[in-house]
Amino acid sequence: xxxxxxxxxxxxxxxxxWHITEACNYKCDYCFAKWNSNTxxxxxxxxxxxxxxxxxxxxxxxxxxxxxxxxFENLRxxxxxxxxxxxEKQLRNIISLSKKYGFKLSAITNGSLFxxxxxxxxxxxxxxxxxxxxxxxxxxxxxxxxxxKKKVFDYQETLLAIxxxxxxxxNLDFKINTVVNKLNFSENLSDFIQQVKPRKxxxxxxxxxxxxKLEIQDHEFYSFIKTHAHLSEIMSIENNDDMTExxxxxxxxxxxxxxxxxxxxxxxxxxxEVSADFALKQINFDTNKFISRYKRII
Length: 298
Fold this sequence. Notes:
disordered N terminus; 10 helices; two-stranded antiparallel sheet; eight-stranded parallel sheet
């Protein structure tokens, strides 16, 4: 028998979050998707999209050399905004090019742009859809900024769209994202969550990147968690420390970014100009914290 000790891996899916645009039809007070750049976003350039996707594929191999416990067999590209479905033509280009690399695709959306023309397209091209739902109350959504041209977020329309997409693609996963803040920490979303039946409900404590107007204290955040304790099996709870330096995030210019010491972000060079390895070294990124977010099944 060989004395060589074999390394055991848990195979996982690596998730890279690409914020493809800052543009959005909502104006949420605590939105962190603000990069304040006058440069044209790269989703409008096929060649730059291809260059960024090439480096995104390299990220998986980089992390496989940094962990002796987890092997990332595939990569899921999570498309985020702004509002992800705002630029349909450009989004279709990204999807088409991503499939050449074999990436799985997911998206985060505020759900306001679901319609009869795009529901089938979404259901057929994504493996997972995350929908941001912070409140079911019209007045609360108005105060948060979750409205567009006087049309406020309507959770019933969202439920209808989810059911329609499930009919088209029964394997499509749904996730709900909720940012707990001063206006909604006492709200109970249980009935809505139970109707959606999401695979995961991600609950975030408001991270004050640009505005702390609706910031809450820890006891208020955990009061919200306690209200929904009966849904703990699907809840993924993240406070500010959990979120810091532990996500792979790319901005609309193709740059890695992380929270800065003060307000705003620190950035790498664009991935359409430098390698992913070089760019990651330009930002504060906690590899150990990132890997620890993946449950190890050994």
